[in-house]
């Protein structure tokens, strides 16, 4: 062979064939410039400007066309040859360009893009095969990169032409490339490998001579090297193994070819590379190049930027073509993936800072640089090399099929990414979208580093050998040890135990479904159950969707009533019936495999109908087809599995039918719950496509082929499913096949007489029918299948506290666990025992579930509202281990062989009728009768008296939640005003009159004066008119507050509104602690009292969020509903027993006592408890009436209470807790933080809730004193550190630590709320002697309000005059002094009775 110029014809062929790639690249780049013209007001389309939605369809439809072209041209490449297939690509390419100039609406463009995309699918599938089959090993990399190089050249061509010409002129210009392509490529010969494959050896030799530039006399024999290469074309060698049989290549591609170790690994590597090729986001961003730069605010015109980027991408691909055979594929892929991630990170950072409002105009070059860098590195590796590597690592026999499958995956992923790119940018923002792609690019780098082999300079045989686990040198093959342990089962034919060095791995699968003999049976079972999984998705999807479409926010344009929902559910049964009948007629005539194929069509139609639904009849049709698929699947899939499976694993494999259905139901629950109605069909329609493609590789079952007298095909099928393709066990395999053949022939002999009605009335047949009727009836009338379809409605009706969607998903998981349990035990303990356990468990569970819902209508069972979920878990689990999980297995096994197919079909038809009936009636029964089955009480579960949900405490807990609605509302008002007050003195003020800083000071502090007035009024009135009437009264000033806010005309309206808000808070802080302390048991009094501040802080957080998210005037009309609901709720609760006893209303007091303690009338112990309370209160009142004078206020306990109360109130306010909450936005603004102020405010609000909630958990467990010590010391330290930071931030540039203020204040808020805030009202009640408690608590609350006013009035002044640093240091000093007082003088009051003297 001549070395000089020996490769020039290979280069010529590669350049000629890639002319069409230039045209396709232009097709890819065409939208970038054209979208700007088509979406403008001067759009040439008759329908007007192209909308964003239409842009998504036009851009992404090229991928759908690519998917179609992948299948079409791969099939043609094997049928008519690589060359002819490539020539035919010119036709769709030309049509795609010609349609564009004549387009008058978006649909025309979509069609054009689809047709042009079909040519692209052929390019990326057939061209890599063509190049791999003609290229020498030394230049295969360079020629393989030409595909992406020319494609990128086409992209640049489209960018440049789009800059100078309109979109129609571009189309005419580029369409000429189709003619140039045909003229140049016409003279290239077919590839040598394909010619040898079709036994055209002489033509293959001429082709090889042409591509290797051998111009010697044709009669002269080829050199030894060329003869060896030609010999490789004739046979496919396997390293380290004997050559395959002569007809190995002639046999069709099956899953067995993909199951080999080398092929499986190669396919998975290809799948990973192809997936990351699209998931890195480069191709998607390329389609929106001009739009991306326009949105990024780049200083360059978008079209110019696109041309620059395209040129850089072309340079990158050219660099790849130079480096790929020097540095290797793997290093380029690694550098590429990391570089893409870095470039995208730079773009995302720029966009993120732009969103945050930073001035980034001077850095407008960043998005172009980042995007250019990204595409440069992408073109060098991740966008260009996967197609080369993919064609290099695939074995010759499956190369076309494997590349077709991988390219199909690529087009599906590409369609998804391009279609949803605008949605991603709208939802996540440009920065979020780019950061998402960057993370995937770094993931690609990890994948490449670990899994992708280096293929530079290796022959195809050496590459395949390395994947298989061989090392090839000097004609000697040696199997790698790692591969022996992990990638391929031990084969006695090639390797002994001594060769491998271990026998452990050989025994791992000894008794499993994955052992050598049965793994293809498992594989076939998994494949055919893709459709049953899809059926489960359709069934599970309905349950949450029914809830959605009955709400005002229904995703549909039409309403659905109860009768329609009933039909919607039951159409599944009708469809199942039709599916049963259809398959029963076809299964023996057309075969199992044809019936399996058939099910893909109606299933695909399901999701098309759901997506396009314009009235309820679309949904009816979809549910009917879902039932049709399930009905057909429940007949043919169990029969198929029983005929391919060994008898000892038949039960386990058949159980996978229901396991896959339950997995699908769970997937349906999750998809319907968390994804939008119209998104689910896009994902679900992938299933029938994958199912159809996978089934192409499976042979028909051996028993069916034997019945049709196709002995050769039956033996091949038998050997395939028993994995007997080699000499190992060949004799055993033949013996087993002969046994099967004999059995089938004997069966046919017995069945030679026509099937008559007498066969259906034999004793075994009748016994089978009886058993099937009982099974079907139990299956349906147990209600489990109806539960699955209406799960969301059932949980809604049961009163469960668990979120309906969450409960539904939990049940889906439980179903899977149940069926998986049945797969484990069905061949161990047998069918009968599982059915007994299952039916008994379902019966008990259903009785208990209905019993609960029945009594829940008459009694308060809120202690047990977790029980519906537990019972449904029990029902679904035990149903799936038997009644559902092995139903179809038992059904197939019940009948005699002669009538099995017919009898099974009849039974499934009967089941379908029952399905229709139960699904039709269940929603009606649920609506008219309710869920009326029984439950037992398990009150002992909440026997712990300290549990807030125990029988005794639950009404105290419920009432506390109800009355603290007003403190939540008060907190909401406080939190809402914080961001509002920040904006009032600025140009962003929502008001039409000026508000100055002095006004802000009064607005902030008047809440303190109002609080003082509320304290005095509530303290004066609550002993005279009662706690309940005072609680009624505090709703009115709060409603007036929001009215003043809404109708504001001047700053005085805000003054009055804040004064009224303060009155509500002040009164609530007096009356609610007293009310709660009088209704609560001693052991939970602390937790219930802490809920006051918990609700306040929750309200503060809500106020922050509401104020930041909604405008000023939209909030009051909705928030005013809170005090109204609080006012109405107060009608449902009685006065406290303490106040009623003091007023001499003993009968009402006893009723109140029993209500709050949840005590029955006949409880004698409770009566004595009430009498004890009454006696002690009466004696206290007598003692108070006799000796209540000034001396009671000057006792030692009283003075000790005054001191502790003063220090407590002083620490509460001068720790800056309330001031920081009220002026939080101002504090953050003064702290020099670089974070978003609104985000910081919301985080602090959330942490306030966390701190206060921690108080409710800890104050009764560890006591009040320890919490006050931790709170005061921690708060002091945090305030001091915050002051130090803000001091130095004013002197030095600490922007690198701009996050630190948020961290410090987060710690501070948590610590101050677990004690100084959370325990203040609990301690105030407990500090004073019982005799003077009411007066002292009122006086202390008035004092607190005065301190609140003082703190809020001086805090902004101190910050303005002293600075934030000195202000915080002063607060820190005050707090540390209070810490020492608490350490030495504060007593513990935990668990002490309020009646103790």
UniProtKB/TrEMBL annotation:
It is found in: Cell membrane. Residues 9-456, 524-954, 959-1390 form the Major facilitator superfamily (MFS) profile domain. Keywords: Cell membrane, Membrane, Transmembrane, Transmembrane helix. Its main location: membrane. SUPFAM superfamilies: MFS general substrate transporter (SSF103473). It is a multi-pass membrane protein. This is Major facilitator superfamily (MFS) profile domain-containing protein. The lineage of its organism: Eukaryota, Metazoa, Ecdysozoa, Arthropoda, Hexapoda.
